[in-house]
Amino acid sequence: MVEKDRTEFCAFHFRNETDGKCSLCGLTLCNLDQQYNTAADRICQLCYNISRARKIIKYFQFGLWGVAIAIFIIIWQVMGAINFFAMIPLLLVLVFPYITRPLIMKLYFRELEPRESVLPTIRYFEASGNQDHYKLFMKMIGKISEEEMNEIKPKLFDYLVPALAFNYAKLPEDWDTELVEKLKMSKDEFVGILLSDYRKTLIQTSVHNPQENFSKFLIYLSESAQDEHLLEEYINEITSKDVISSTDEELNTIYNKLLEELYLYEEKFNEICDELKLTKQKDLIAQLLKRYEPPPVPKNQIEAVLTIDQLKEKRRKENEQPPIILSNPNEEEQTETEEE
Ligand SMILES: [Zn+2]
Ligand SMILES: [Zn+2]
User: Which ligand minimizes its atom distance to the CA of 44?
Assistant: First the structure.
């Protein structure tokens, strides 16, 4: 069913082969996309619209500030004092961005049909995890005809699957019910496509390049399709030679996110191993967790502003040299709870 890799067709005109990328956002373009920025770099219609809209909004805001300040001064002079009425124009300036939001959206999607905006908006969501981008995608997909939907669907999945998997934690409640309704397919069909066409990619990515809550996404898929083998394959990949034989440093850098998932959902992983009788794998996961260095927890306000790397470095130094000052009982309590 996967006809083409998403790097091969235009993100705006899905029927066309791509002949380049937007130099700002990286979306694929075709010969219909001929917008350039002032530096003569080829950009997509969306990036072109956004930079143009930002300029318009900026000028408009400057103008609005000018008018607001002028009215403020007039009211002040006429009334002889600064009162509530003088503040109204200033309030208008503050609520301006909210009132004009629909208009700004129109500027952003100027000269773009909904079918041309579907793939770009879901790609935006994939990169940003911003729920507004997801809402926008849902809006766009609701506007395209059934015929267009059937045509775009196979290509859409190439964009949709990573966007969902990488941002599973950010999806709204009942996202699947709403999505399959818009896609005009059943939930079984939807999950079926993910588990057949994207199975290998999902398992590989979930282990070798995971994001927060990727494991939950796989658990969701496996439960929805009642496909236990998926979790078995996932756990086999986690405990594969590639992961197990990596050094402690590699493990804590390359597989950092994977270890974090194992650490956070240790009980769930153990449960799955028990259910599927994966005794060996359960032991291997326990071994992996022993080698995991969870990010240090800041102990005070000063440490709270440090980055995780700075904090790790600090702890390393602290461990090298014994503390000069005898630790106070509070601190001892903290270390105990940490070890638990
Ligand atoms: Zn672009
Ligand atoms: Zn195009």
Answer: 1
